[in-house]
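Final report, closing paragraph on structural work. Over the funding period we assembled a curated collection of sequence-structure pairs, and we close with a single example.
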Amino acid sequence: MKLADHLDSDTRRKLEKMGKKKKPPSKKKKRKGKVKEEKVNWPEIMGMDRDIYKRVNGALFLNHLN
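Its predicted structure, as stored:
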């Protein structure tokens, strides 16, 4: 049995009023207008534009592939 089954109608109404709360407004905002661009330089992060070195007789030399 539930607690509400043991209460009279007046007390049950008061209990229902206490339980009902207004929903807070959602914080999620919809984007309007232009899309936000990323400020991240992905080729640099992924290491695609890094210099390439080659070891020749114990020394390091920069390979110029371009």
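The chain is about 25% helix and 15% strand. The two ends are 81 Å apart (CA to CA). We thank the funder for supporting this effort.
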